[in-house]
Predict the structure of Acyl-coenzyme A oxidase.
Amino acid sequence: MVGISDKCTEDIARERKKCSFSSTELTHFWDGGVELTKRRKLLENYFLSDPELKSSVPLEYLSHKEKYERSIKLSCLFFKKISNWLEHNDTISAMEVYQSVLGGSLGSAVLKDGFPFAVHYVMFIPTIIGQGTMAQQAHWISRAWNLEIMCTYAQTELGHGTFIRGLETTSTYDPDTEEFVLHSPTLTSYKWWPGGLGHTCNYAVVLAQLYTKGQCHGIHPFVVQLRDEETWMPLPGIKIGEIGCKLGFNTVNNGYLGFDHVRIPRDRLLMKNNKVLKDGTYVKSQNDKLTYGTMIFVRVIVVRGVAASNLAKAVTIATRYSAVRRQSELKPGEPEPQIMEFQTQQYKLFPAIATVFAIKSSATWLWDVYNSVTKDLDQGDLDKLPELHAMACCLKAISTSDANQMIETCRFACGGHGYMTSSNFPTIYSSLTAAVTYEGENTVLLLQTARYLVKAWSQRDVTSATITATLKYLSDFRPSDIYQPWSLTMSNLAEAFRLVAAGKIKYCSEHIDYLIQKGYTSEDAWNATSIQLTQIAEAHCRAFIVDTFVKETEVAVVSEPVRKVLVQLCELYSVYWLLKNVGDFLVYSHLKISDVDAVNERLAELLAAIRPNAVGIVDSFDFHDDILDSALGAYDGRVYERIFEAANKSPLNAEPVNESFHKYLKPFLKGQM
Ligand SMILES: CCCCCCCC/C=C\CCCCCCCC(=O)SCCNC(=O)CCNC(=O)[C@H](O)C(C)(C)COP(=O)(O)OP(=O)(O)OC[C@H]1O[C@@H](n2cnc3c(N)ncnc32)[C@H](O)[C@@H]1OP(=O)(O)O
Ligand SMILES: Cc1cc2nc3c(=O)[nH]c(=O)nc-3n(C[C@H](O)[C@H](O)[C@H](O)COP(=O)(O)OP(=O)(O)OC[C@H]3O[C@@H](n4cnc5c(N)ncnc54)[C@H](O)[C@@H]3O)c2cc1C
């Protein structure tokens, strides 16, 4: 074994020397500025140096029950430490601290399979802010924020997750006692999935169909107590439990919940938007979709906090490993090359690096728009809500589905060792792949964006004067634009993405009209076009991502060497996705068959140009080794020693002969069984 480690560390050190730009400068860009990098590191040092937050036995060797018990112990220690930090430091806002620990992946170093407290912060508190009156906010936020109560968000049921108008839990107003009566009429009406619901939370926001004066007014949010605050016993009429093992998130304590005529006071209905008066009169808000506000918030934070962050981890591991792993021959008789020399390996890694930066730039846009629209909503201005909803839906869907596919590719790029739990790919993948489904299943979200696009297409001439920035290309669109000459410039590539989106939206809209003329109902015409409809949402989203990334590379305040790297990644992102959908570009944009060879050549040039900087670029994500938690991806490149050390943590290796030999194997082999 002597010498292996030196060779690997030399390989990775050589990569760092080759780098043509300052990794530290790119880290500052990634974090959003020097100051933010400093703050992130400060928090990392504070949490990751604490021995109480470290575990000696890897999580995967514990039983399901032990995992839960450990998760509660660590969550309590961790969140206590966060409170201590916030008490003694006012330089970093509470929001930034929570973003960093829950979304910025610092938390994964403490509890890699997820926190049972996450939904309390990510959904319960935001729902109270978005849906509660001032008095309700004052009461519930202070209780939740001070951790007097532990809460979750219970919307999904066994029978319905997507179609929330179809939820079955009822909440019927009784004016005699001024109470609501919550009830689960069927097995399929049981709440199913909420994080922390099983045994961790004693309160929840519950979404239920509101009935008053014999009329149903659709789903509304209610704050419901589930467990006694002292004994933690479920309250009368509450049936509660945990839903069992899952592909991942096995420390999150996802639960189920049913109600048997449970009474709650009238003021537990969150009444910022819709109200029920004492006598049972229902007062409706301006827009019934305001009840869906928390979902928009989570979709917005998932783009960067889950998709970009998990993909960045995966590609850091795979790129560093590809710099130290040597295999096969490039030329006969020559030493085995680093596997990153293979062009096919570069094709697995570098588009994923480019995608991380692309997602990040769109996530920043989305977060800013979310904040500005939220301010407008508070003033009663709902004009920009449809655009925010449409962009949050497609960006959540595309960022998580790209990350899902690319994390798997990164794992494949590590060969057999990528399959080891110690590579950390299983946890990264299982955390990310859940996001394809939760907070709106991706196909369903793409169809929401498509609905907005088809409507925008039909109104593009009428509204062209006031059309929003993300849709301007539709009113600018001229079908004859596909006869423009092709060139391999960034502005031309961005134009091609817009042409594809506009051309496909036009086609889909016309197809729906054609089917309706043929006698289809509009719903049937929609369903019969829905494969293409999901594709228009993707095309719109890609065009948006490319535009946003291009603009970011132009305005970023960075040195020329760093800008050059960003420009290469932006071009790689565009060329990669163009070639993946080359048929669409041939049909709907000005790309011609005779231009495709040049685009393929450009892809090869870009891969070669990025190759010397690859390790430097992933270093700029600046993941602490404890966060990456990977034998293959640690900073020093000591891959083989770490794989070996991790294998020796297996409890099976604690004894030379396992007792099952004496009990079963020996009698079996001796014919005595
Ligand atoms: C502070 C720290 C931060 C740290 C960062 C942390 C990082 C993260 C860490 C860890 C996260 C893990 C934690 C999360 C775990 C997961 C939680 C859950 O999963 S909770 C359940 C989610 N459930 C869904 O999302 C259901 C999906 N279904 C729906 O949303 C709806 O049912 C939908 C949209 C599919 C259909 O709803 P319809 O049937 O009522 O609506 P239609 O008829 O299609 O449309 C009516 C109109 O409403 C608009 N609309 C629909 N949704 C809207 C919305 N949300 N806002 C505004 N308008 C909307 C539409 O655009 C349409 O508009 P027109 O009529 O065309 O103008
Ligand atoms: C890890 C995890 C954590 C979660 N946490 C929470 C939580 O804290 N709180 C909570 O309330 N919920 C939570 N959920 C539930 C989650 O939000 C739902 O699972 C999700 O919204 C999808 O709904 P569903 O399971 O009913 O899928 P379904 O809607 O049944 O989807 C099944 C298939 O049907 C298709 N489909 C459904 N409707 C349509 C349509 N209209 N058009 C085309 N195709 C359609 C989908 O594309 C999919 O292929 C969580 C889920 C997971 C996996």
Observations:
- The mean pLDDT is 95.
- DSSP finds 23 helices and eleven strands in the chain.
- The pocket of 3VV (ligand 1) is lined by residues 95, 98-99, 102-103, 118-119, 121-122, 153, 155-156, 162-165, 195, 289, 292, 295-296, 298, 301-302, 305-306, 385-386, 389, 438-440, 444, 448, 451-452, 455 (CB under 6 Å).
- The first strand starts at residue 151 and ends at 154.
